[in-house]
Every structure is written in structure tokens, then in C-alpha cells.
């Protein structure tokens, strides 16, 4: 079977290393995915391939959002189909959802396409990009060309888009819905992305905690320093008093 996404292999090997190190958070019991992108890019078709059913009508304009679910390897997978150029709001960030940015790999991708997509995703804030995968439809069109070759040859707008999505991409051939492996690979990539995001959140909390505790430590050091200073002053005062009385005593002796 054809492997469209070579970058996925590296993701996979990193995943097993992290698992071995016990770094991965527990897998999510439910996976939510939102299909976004321009009109006729293949969003509804990709949704049908993921669900392995024909739930979303294709070749007709999708006018409102529509969600369907299926079970994949014991996990509930929800897919939300959206109308073309649907603005993704920060509501998405409330649930652990992935954004699948559908791009037709067979058509040319211009700076105008990129601007439209960026506008769509920027509505949800910068954090949304760390939850986004570029999902190329029309994988059958690629033939013997690898998706990496296609990204390279297509030019700057597509390369920049893929980079903004953390170089996460996957290809689906919607004419070959029976190919379950292409869906399994996509699910693994999405899970890895969401797990990385959760790890980053934990790390952020950890850094915050370290900052708070180092501030507390500094405060304690200041208090300790003050106490030491007071003790030193007291000792010095005692010493000078001792010297003074000693001097007076010796002066008295000398007077005698
Ligand atoms: N050959 C081929 N055609 C596709 C593929 N994905 C989608 N299409 C076709 O592209 C057209 C638009 O697809 P659709 O899913 O309705 O796009 P949407 O408007 O983004 O939801 C339809 O004619 C689909 O049959 C694919 O992987 N290969
Ligand atoms: Mg549609």
C-alpha cells in the first residue's frame, strides 16, 4: 500500500520513543475533527472517507455545519463538515478538537488561497494553528509524485501554509474509500498532534510553577539576608560596647 506521508514516519518513530519514556498523556476517548477549507476542495468527501460512509453530500454546496460519528479502533471519532470558507472561532479550543484544513492537491495553490485560509483560521486565534493538519484531497491525482515533491514544486504559498501548521500534513484518496490504512494514519497523526499540545500545556504550567517557586525562594533569601544583617549589627554593637567598657576600665587603671 502506498505511503503518502513520509513526514508521518518520523512522527511515528518519535511517538514510540516518547511512549517508551512514559511521556505521552493518556489517549483521548473521543476524537473530534473539523473539516475546513475553500469550496469544492473535497471537505465532504474527506469526511466520508474518514467515516467510511456516505454521510455528507458531495458536489452540492454545504450550507450549514453537520456532524457525524463513527467508531475507529474502539474510539469515537466525530467529524464536523462545514460550509466553504467557514470562519473557525476560538470555540474550537474548548474541546480537544483537531482542525483538518482540506486542500485539493491537484489544483494550483496561490497567495490568494493562502490569504483566504489564514483569514479563516486567524479568527480562532494563533493557538488554533497548533491544532491544524493540512489534509490534501485528490491523492489519486498524485500518481508517482510524492506529496513532498508536490509541496516543493507548488511554491511559496503552499510551503508557508504547511509550515504554519507545524509541517503536519496527510493525503487522502477519496476515490479509494476502502483504504482504511490512510484513515488510520491520519488518526494517529491527529492524536500525536493533540498529545503534543497537551504536553506543551503541562510544560507551560510547570514553567509557571517554577517561576512562582523561584520568586518565593528569592523572598525567603531576602528575609534570611535581613535576619543575618540584624544579627551582625547586634554582634557589632555588643563588641563595640565591650571595647568601650574595656577601654574605660583600662583608662581608669591608667588614671590610677
Ligand atoms: N478524484 C478525486 N476527486 C475528489 C477527491 N475528493 C473530492 N473529490 C471530488 O471533488 C469534488 C468536490 O468535493 P466535495 O467533497 O463536495 O468538496 P467540498 O465542497 O469541499 O465539500 C467532488 O466532485 C468530489 O467527487 C479525491 O480524492 N479524488
Ligand atoms: Mg461539502
TrEMBL record:
Recorded GO MF terms: GTP binding
GTP-binding in keyword set: yes
Stretches for region Disordered: 1-26
InterPro entries, sorted: G_AIG1 (IPR006703), GIMA/IAN/Toc (IPR045058), P-loop_NTPase (IPR027417)
Keywords of this entry: GTP-binding, Nucleotide-binding
A Pfam family matched in the record: AIG1
Annotated transmembrane regions: none
Domain of life the protein comes from: Eukaryota
Annotated AIG1-type G domain residues: 28-212
Ranges of Polar residues composition bias in the record: 1-10
PROSITE patterns: G_AIG1 (PS51720)
Family to which the UniProt record says this protein belongs: Belongs to the TRAFAC class TrmE-Era-EngA-EngB-Septin-like GTPase superfamily. AIG1/Toc34/Toc159-like paraseptin GTPase family. IAN subfamily.
Name the UniProt record assigns to this protein: AIG1-type G domain-containing protein
Species the sequence originates in: Xiphophorus couchianus (Monterrey platyfish)
